[in-house]
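Agenda item 2: iron/sulfur cluster complex prediction
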Amino acid sequence: MPSPRNHPIFFFHILTRCNLSCAHCYINPDQHGHQTLSIGTICRWLDLFSQNALQTNLIFLGGEPTLHKDLPPAVKHARKLNYLSITIDTNGFLFHNILDRITPDDVDFISFSLDGATSSTNDAIRGKGSYDAVLSGIHQARQKGFACSMIFTVSDKNLHELLNMPDLVASLDIQRFFIQVIGMRGNSAADSTDTHQVSRELWLSVIPKVAETIAQTGITVTYPKVFLEPGEVFTCAGIVADNYFVFPNGRVYRCPLCEDYPLHAYTIEDNTLVPSPPVNETHLFDLTIPEGCVMNKIIQPGNLDYLPDGTPAHRIACCMLKQEISRTV
Ligand code: SF4
Ligand code: SF4
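Presented output:
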């Protein structure tokens, strides 16, 4: 069974600024800072988390990370530190001629976010011009020899178009496809009456089939488990994994669902990881509840159902528990 114990991931947000304002953006500058890290600080923080670099997948994020003019030297410094893999997550606009300032040897993947198979659906969620930017960005990146992946965040606004994604991604020559589930964080948390989350029935009837269809074309597909089957073991990544979500104001979280709150496990002070005083997220990870993930119950209880006797109809998996399908063609 897939496990949240797999290789640690270092999610490094080097700025929170972005040229877009996506409807479901999880970035919350009030909690994550407004600053753009200097290249000196970026390199020092890459050093700080490099003790287990050989086993750690590093992802550069923002905001939009290519808005940082010093992303290329940051990437090259990370490569020298031997991180297991290096990915740049982008909205497709590829600022500062990033593709001319790094080489395919510097990064393992450039990952493009697209939330619809058509420009009308995608741009309604992510902003005008973002669909064309992603398709053009992938084309340019592939021409220069970069390996590309794609992230599709599922909500009730675009689930119907996920069915059309296999044809689109097959035409783009990408290597990996990630399906995410919309979470109640950042912008999405603003209106709790309209969460845009999809039901368990819809999720289970659509996602695994689409994932398998795309995987049959030779693209590796990853998607979150979300709902545990009866008898499946619940595991909290905050306990069993070494994932770090680092923000420009120095906050370091172990769980992405905590990021809207000052519950971070650590703060980086003088280039040192300083544990946060109680109560912080680490005190939640040990709590055992019949619904599975504690933070899910706190911030997005709408995806829980209960039987007439009050027991949960199903448990929610850790959001870091992913299914991965890889097929040889
Ligand atoms: S591109 Fe990313 S960082 Fe920018 S608004 Fe959209 S989700 Fe947020
Ligand atoms: S999502 Fe839930 S289970 Fe996963 S790390 Fe956070 S609190 Fe733990």
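Discussion summary: Residues 200-215 form the longest helix (16 residues).
Owner for follow-up: CH.
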